[in-house]
Amino acid sequence: MAHTKAQGSVKGNRDSRPKRRGVKVYGGSKVSPGGIIIRQVGSRVNPGPGVLMGRDFTLFAIEEGTVKFKTLRGKKYVEVING
Question: What whole-number distance in Å separates Cα of residue 70 and Cα of residue 52?
Answer without folding.
Answer: 16
